[in-house]
Specification:
The chain is α+β, with helices and mostly antiparallel strands. The chain is 22% helix and 28% strand. The chain is built from 11 helices and 33 strands. Helix 6 packs parallel to helix 7.
């Protein structure tokens, strides 16, 4: 490996503001080490093998990171050498550090650091041919717990001085802040953290937001440093942004293309951004603004309409409660007779429900979107009856399920259909007429998306370019665009509060909570704040039916201050089997009526038409 030139470490430290007069290109041997000071942060450049950058905020070091990062192929680890560095003043009032290196895998390698007012950007580039594996940021390889692992040593990993970090990916332990040793997967994973009932770790049960923002915020002193990645829509062809946790040799960040993306010429990685903020939500908001200004997000196509704001009844918890005495699956209770019975109870209590969500399983097969006519003999008539009463109806749907799907529309592995081949034109041609039938002919007003998953494993015969996160984006776009083609005011609920998915999501559902949750309103307010910071103004508050009656009731009182109120049962809670009192039902009806009146005032013309 190339070492710093003799004597370079003896050059005295040079400190200057970013506006100082500088040569157009200074080699590292000329002026290293150096300290670059901007308003919100400073960076001290440390020459060596590899060169490193110490990043400070509010006078405290937050990270020391290598100036270069590996880009592995699908089968080989990259090794870098002959590292050279240049410094350039930036036209935006910042500074640029250009690093080049020799590689054992790629014919040329380049790394660009942009030190800009308010934030830092890092991106790497390569030229060559081959299938991509892991693309690292601020690191090369992964340390083991007790040795350096696949890293060349601690100089090649991130040294973290922060004491903890915030993750915008909710889990069933309701934990958002973690010790820096805890790994984090922001996106989709397959079998990375196996668990069992004997070794139950709810903090590792994620997927509640799928995908969440590809972002973490690290705490140091009185401030937070946000770290997130972004790229152009269409190029999120990896399942997740991974953080290994701080280990023996340090921490690593990476995305894994798993061999699905090939390079034949030039490659540019996603861009990593660091920002500096007063709290995690401030950092997340700054990250989202950066995504938007960089062209790394999509914009909402939704129309803000009155009925999207009205209270929701979803029957899932009632299905669960009624199935328990018979020891049958809750999805067997998704029948037309049951929903008509439950709606009659809602009406008798004076609850002004605006949207009915028919939950799992109205379908004959999950993957086909075909109505189970034994359970729903007249879904069209049911929908028409709800429309006559001023309500709308959504159907629960899972993402890319295989149940009932023809084999030629499947991704096959070891002789099994493991997931729908979402990227194949034939799959889209199969799904669109079925979505149209439900919306245009049956009268369905939209969908509630669930079971969001991604084939996060190498070696599957996927159809590109729908790899990684783009796989889920493609499914959601087909669902959203076809529904809105036939009903422009349709509503598609999703659990994808990632700015890439704004184009195909009308509101974010805050999703499930675990049975042991006791501070429900606090937890769901954080989830709502994540959705708002990522660009969604409207959220479905979901429900707390899986907890105790006391905690359910406290959340029902808080819902109107968080988002669209939602109710999931009419008789009793799921796990504790407790029933609300008549007084509670009466008070809930008053709360919802007041909420509806308040919402209607924001849509005077639509309210007049609906009266």
């Amino acid at each position: 490996m190339h070492l710093a030139k003799p004597g370079s470490l003896l050059v005295p430290l040079i400190c200057f503001s970013i506006s100082a007069s500088l040569p157009s290109a200074a080699q590292d041997s000329d002026r290293a080490p150096r300290q670059l000071k901007l308003t919100d942060y400073s960076v001290q450049f440390e020459p060596g093998d590899p060169p490193r950058l110490q990043i400070e905020h509010a006078g405290d070091p937050v990270f020391i990171v290598p100036a270069v990062s590996e880009l592995d192929s699908a089968t080989q680890q990259e090794h870098l050498s002959q590292i050279q560095t240049e410094f350039h003043p930036d036209q935006h009032g910042g500074f640029e550090i250009l690093v080049t290196a020799a590689s054992n895998l790629w014919s040329s390698r380049r790394f660009v650091w942009k030190l800009l007012p308010g934030h830092i950007e890092f991106q790497q580039f390569a030229t060559g041919r081959g299938k991509l594996g892991r693309c690292y940021f601020l690191s090369s390889g992964v340390s083991n717990r007790w040795d350096k692992g696949s890293t060349p040593g601690h100089l090649w990993a991130t040294t973290i001085y922060a004491d903890r970090y915030f993750s915008p990916s909710p889990n069933h332990a309701n934990q958002f802040e973690f010790n820096i040793a805890m790994p984090q997967t922001l996106g989709f994973t397959t079998g990375r953290y196996p668990d069992s009932d004997d070794d139950f770790r709810p903090e590792r049960i994620t997927g509640i937001f799928g995908p969440p923002p590809l972002f973490l915020a690290f705490h140091m002193g009185q401030s937070w440093t946000g770290v997130g990645i972004g790229t152009q829509p269409g190029r999120y062809q990896f399942p997740a942004f991974e953080y290994t946790g701080s280990r023996y040799a340090g921490a690593s960040f990476y995305v894994d293309y798993m061999g699905y993306v090939s390079v034949d010429g030039d490659f540019s990685s996603p861009v990593l951004s660091m920002n500096f903020a007063k709290d995690p939500m401030d950092a997340l908001t700054r990250y989202t603004r950066w995504l938007d200004s960089s062209g790394f997000s999509t914009q909402s196509k939704s129309v803000d309409i009155l009925w999207h704001h009205l209270p929701i009844f979803c029957g899932w918890a009632e299905q669960t409660a009624e199935s328990m005495p018979f020891d049958v699956a809750p999805n067997t209770m998704s029948t037309q007779a049951n929903y008509e019975k439950w709606i009659a109870i809602l009406e008798s209590r004076g609850l002004p429900v605006g949207t009915i969500v028919i939950d799992d399983k109205w379908q004959s097969h999950y993957g086909t979107f075909e109505i189970d006519e034994k359970k729903w003999p007249d879904l069209k008539g049911f929908v028409a009856a709800q429309h006559a009463k001023g309500r709308h109806v959504l159907l629960w749907v899972p993402v890319a399920e295989t149940d009932g799907l023809p084999a030629d529309l499947c991704v096959m592995a070891q002789g099994k259909c493991v997931i729908a081949n979402v990227g194949a034109p034939e799959y889209e041609a199969y799904m669109r007429p079925r979505i149209r039938h439900l919306v245009d002919e049956i009268g369905i007003d939209g969908f509630k998306e669930d079971w969001v998953g991604d084939p996060a494993a190498p070696g599957l015969p996927l159809t590109g370019p729908a790899f990684g996160i783009e796989f889920v984006r493609r499914f959601q776009w087909v669902l959203w665009s076809e529904a809105h083609k036939w009903k422009p005011d349709a509503m598609v609920e999703t659990q994808t509060p990632n700015a890439l998915f704004r184009e195909s999501s009308d509101l974010i559902r805050l999703n499930d909570i675990w049975y042991g949750t006791r501070n429900v309103a606090d937890v769901l307010r954080i989830r709502a704040a994540i959705a708002h910071a990522s660009g969604w103004s409207l959220v479905d508050t979901d429900n707390a039916s899986s907890t105790t009656l006391r905690d359910w009731w406290s959340y029902m009182l808080a819902q109107p201050s968080i988002g669209v109120p939602a109710l999931y049962f009419v008789s009793k809670t799921e796990s504790t089997q407790e029933s609300p009192t008549s007084a509670q039902w009466a008070q809930l009806a008053r709360i919802w009526k007041n909420y509806v009146q308040s919402v209607r005032r924001n849509f005077p013309s639509q309210s007049a038409k609906s009266n």
